[in-house]
């Protein structure tokens, strides 16, 4: 058996086509969705991510308001910018690219963002609403994982899902999303991690495995239940002298062994990665739609 690939690029294209229609409908009402992206410093990976987000805005017709600040920016200066963006009616979403320099408290910055513009889904209010099942912005990577499963026809209702990784960015919010009484959810969810006793046995019991721990090729094919669905969130660089750049990208799952056991698997790259950005665009459009709804009295 060879697993069917769950290709994030194709699913992301499908969602982008839907977003273009929603954006066109908003523009007819005089609203153009706007996203402000704030980058502090010159971290190479962050620069790449921000560039991809700005490119995606341009392709969809979303107003992009980039703010590239020097590494020496103070916390007070960044908070002043966030407050200004909160008050800017052109901006429906605010994203402050993490990580931030050491002199800035990330938690203070995230909490300063207006929850109505928290399109990254990291604000405590957003996460609290997520936990209790109230409509809110879904954090982008977990939302991308859920959409991949939903749009690939994977029925999670009553299924056993093991999420390997307990980060605030992926593991914890995804677990809460998949527990809800909602389409693409209703699963029985276990969060496992590096300290889990007999991790291979825990993974073996899962109908769906989500790998999000940041350890290259950690989860092996022999750990999987035959026919399991595997979503690999990890993106890791490993040295490879045969590769043009001297390295290659791998996930948290050992793909060559897993693909022989799983029924479906997301590749790295080309799986979850494209979904994260398109879900950011989705949240920005959703925020603009909420603005229109407020303007029209909820109609």
UniProtKB/TrEMBL annotation:
Pfam families: THF_DHG_CYH, THF_DHG_CYH_C
GO molecular function: methenyltetrahydrofolate cyclohydrolase activity; methylenetetrahydrofolate dehydrogenase (NADP+) activity
Gene3D superfamilies linked to this entry: Leucine Dehydrogenase, chain A, domain 1, NAD(P)-binding Rossmann-like Domain
Pathway where this protein functions: One-carbon metabolism; tetrahydrofolate interconversion
All residue ranges annotated as the Tetrahydrofolate dehydrogenase/cyclohydrolase NAD(P)-binding domain in the record: 139-290
Biological-process GO terms, alphabetical: L-histidine biosynthetic process; methionine biosynthetic process; purine nucleotide biosynthetic process; tetrahydrofolate interconversion
Listed CDD domains: NAD_bind_m-THF_DH_Cyclohyd
Keyword Ribonucleoprotein: no
EC number(s) from the headed UniProt entry: 1.5.1.5, 3.5.4.9
Family: Belongs to the tetrahydrofolate dehydrogenase/cyclohydrolase family.
Quaternary state and interactors: Homodimer.
Name by which UniProt lists this protein: Bifunctional protein FolD
Gene: folD
